[in-house]
Amino acid sequence: MNRINQLFSSNKKDLLSIYFCAGHPTVDSTAHIIRTLEKHGVEMIEIGIPFSDPMADGAVIQHAATQSLRNGMSLKLLFDQLRDIRSDVTIPLVLMGYLNPIMQFGFEHFCKQCVKCGIDGVIIPDLPFRDYQEHYRSIAERYNVKVIMLITPETSEERVREIDTHTDGFIYMVSSAATTGVQRDFDDQKRAYFKKIEDMKLVNPLMVGFGISNKATFDAACEHASGAIIGSRFVTLLEEEKDAEKAILELKKSIK
Length: 256
Known about the structure:
Shape: globular
Mean pLDDT: 93
Number of strands: 9
Strand order of the largest sheet: 5-4-3-2-1-9-8-7-6
Distance between the termini: 31 Å
Helix content: 40-55%
Number of helices: 12
Radius of gyration: 17 Å
């Protein structure tokens, strides 16, 4: 069974997934950050593939991606760095990146490398659902790489159900139609959106991302989903602390 499915089959609540950008703050820090996050109880990790035009990302993650590219990070180098990660890391690992670098690499070649490294899934924010269905789904399923789709408050109920029917792993429930970034709290409109999706009783579990940075936003997300994804806040702490252990300890303190 894919590790993503294993995680959610446990029916654990308040799951914490962390996003960071590969190659940031230093080009060789990726594997160390993964191991540190698992050591401190993070249940799933999203590893960002740096790209020059990350349209869904706010200033913090854009800056991290730019720094990563300047450091020399590439998709090939990332796979080289992750070659031995499964010697001691057991939690689900998901790559998150835009379609252009993956297409340049070759989608099937990308999936083969995911298998070699033990990558469980991929999130491609700019991959249209129809294109996934027509061109990529059969390849991803052949390699048991879960393609995780995003939904937003603008996604129709019909499309949400279609995504739920034709994907497997979890559904990434974006908290707003804006880019990534820190929010102090979620307003009534966002909370109503979370509840509406929860009440649809989808087959796939839900994880909420974008804007989660403190106890208020983490608890609001977990009230209506299996857990929450934190990106910008951790990336900021990583930049400030220059130490993955200090960054994750500070983050966990702020959401408990």
